[in-house]
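Many introductory courses stop at the sequence. We go one step further.
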Amino acid sequence: MGSFNTSSGESFILVGFSDWPQLEILLFVFILIFYSLTLLGNTTIIILSRIDPRLHTPMYFFLSHLSFLDLCFTTSTVPQLLINLQGLDRTISYGGCVAQLFIYLALGSTECVLLVVMAIDRYAAVCRPLHYTTIMHPLLCQALAITSWVGGFMNSLIQTGLMMAIPLCGHQLNHFFCEMPVFLKLACEDTGGTEAKMFVARVIILVVPAALILVSYVYIAKAILKVKSMAGRRKAFGTCGSHLLVVFLFYGSAIYTYLQPIHSYSEKEGKFVALFYTIVTPILNPLIYTLRNKDVKGALWKVLRRSRDSG
């Protein structure tokens, strides 16, 4: 393979799922449906959290940020994937690839931090209910949200900068978007030192947040066990279990992708794992975090009734 000239306007070929042509039509329909539902669900949450005064609380403030993140996160890869699955255009320029990598990593890293913030919010609500409004002051909520965004983009800037310094050989990326491990597979030289630096950054942005979330839910579980009502316990554990399912899918698939050595990374398996955190998780968030919530259901029915009456 020849050296890739990043200054000559050369392009990459995204292989996508062309190795399984019989799956492409099925995946196209599946992904299009999930993407449409993701747009609808997350947009609905953002609108409801803005227009309904009952949802002007810290939890829904962070959920609206999560919904906006999921909209951007999935949109950074899915439209191109749909075009790829139709076989219309499988190429992407070097500049476009770097831009996609930076945006994708920034949004994914931001979500890693934001999920910790949301876990802390739930900890304060369940374990410190009498002091909740004092602890989760609007100024603190805004500061935590800004910290999530800044931390995510800084992590992406560091990792993308390290990747751009690596000379690449070859033009074929065996993935459906510009994923970091696939980029490193094209390196023309030993990337041991760069991988070590990236590994440290990934532990900070993946393992540390996941550990903090698990610790917070251990304390939440202890507080729930003190509830005398069996129905209350069952409802609380059901909600926590749903939240942890989202955390497991998102962090589990991301940790599998980013924390294993490059030489053992399977590009074929990586494509299917990536579908979980690019397609499945963004649609689960609105379903699990809010659309099962009676406050959100009430706000939604209120808007629908108002629209019907005005029509």
